[in-house]
Write a structure and sequence with these properties.
The protein is α/β, with parallel strands linked by helices and about 270 residues long. It has two domains: about 140 residues, Nitrogenase molybdenum iron protein domain (Rossmann fold, 3-Layer(aba) Sandwich), CATH 3.40.50.1980; about 120 residues, Rossmann fold. The protein is about 35% helix and about 15% strand. The protein contains ten helices and ten strands. Strands 4-3-5-6 form a four-stranded parallel beta sheet, with helices on both faces. The termini are far apart.
Length: about 270
């Protein structure tokens, strides 16, 4: 029987089925519920919004970048879930200094979800449920990969922010997710994982589609209308994409793969 699990930075954690967990990562909060570990969850961030309405009963400790340490200590957690991209290292270090078990995650590819399920499920006593989730994930992934054989590759610009305009690097989880559906994100040449860009005709000439994500900036149809008015020759390239379905790892990846299959089917082959 496995007695410990290793997180994304190589730190070993002993199996803790009675853990009191604070999750500082929205997708991991949802994963805890789907693993049947809601009873272990004692705290979350204000951005942990799934599943409704059950999540409303879990106290918030603040955001993903800044938390109220006094509130967190008052919840008496034994473990805190963090992510390298979403939470500051300084915050994680402060939590470790309190003697808490800080479990660091960093999935970079869609396939990393298998290990993530096994880490969180195994560590907190839900290994059997985790393996069932792995099976569901594998089935959804296989269906998308099979369907992708019928699609041609398309170059996409995936927008996550405006003022300034920002996109994603090619080595991010989102880029890997999109690539499964033949949607290849362009390389901006920036070393940043989430670089600023100039949204202009020169850039738009390089892409087949411009994907406006619904988070972290909440793009809506009105932003697509503004884009179409500013760049009428590229108006047909604008599409709204549900960011939760393509950027949230964890259990959301399973319906996310199905969503992406349907989303991609709407494109020209």
């Amino acid at each position: 029987m496995t007695t410990h699990y290793q997180d994304a930075i190589g730190r070993n954690h002993e199996v803790a089925p009675t853990a009191r967990i604070v999750s500082l990562v929205p997708s991991l909060t949802e994963l805890l519920f789907d693993l049947g570990l809601a009873g272990n969850l004692v705290g979350r961030t204000q951005f942990c919004v799934h599943p409704k309405p059950a999540i409303d009963a879990v106290p918030s400790v603040g955001g993903t970048k800044k938390i109220d340490m006094d509130v967190l200590r008052g919840l008496d957690p034994s473990h805190v879930l963090v992510n390298i991209d979403e939470n500051p290292k300084e915050m994680a270090d402060d939590l470790s200094a309190l003697g808490l078990g800080v479990v660091v995650t960093h999935p970079l590819t869609v396939a990393d979800n298998r290990e993530l399920f096994q880490l969180i499920g195994g560590l907190f006593g839900a290994a059997t449920v985790a393996e069932r989730l792995v099976g569901e994930f594998d089935a959804a992934l296989a269906a998308l990969v099979a369907q992708a054989q019928t699609w041609s590759e398309r170059r996409v610009l995936y927008l996550i922010w405006r003022k300034p305009w920002m996109t994603i690097a090619t080595d991010t989880y989102i880029a890997d997710m999109l690539a499964l559906a033949g949607l290849k994100t362009i390389d901006t040449g920036s070393p940043d994982r989430y670089p600023e860009i100039a949204l202009d005709t020169a850039l738009l000439e390089k892409v087949d589609d411009v994907l406006f994500s619904t988070e972290p900036f909440p793009f809506t149809e009105k932003h697509l209308d503004a884009f179409r008015a500013e760049f009428p020759e590229h108006a047909a390239k604008a599409r709204l994409i549900d960011a939760e379905m393509v950027s949230w790892y964890g259990s959301r990846a399973v319906p996310g793969l199905r969503y992406l299959t349907d989303f991609r089917n709407d494109f020209a082959p």
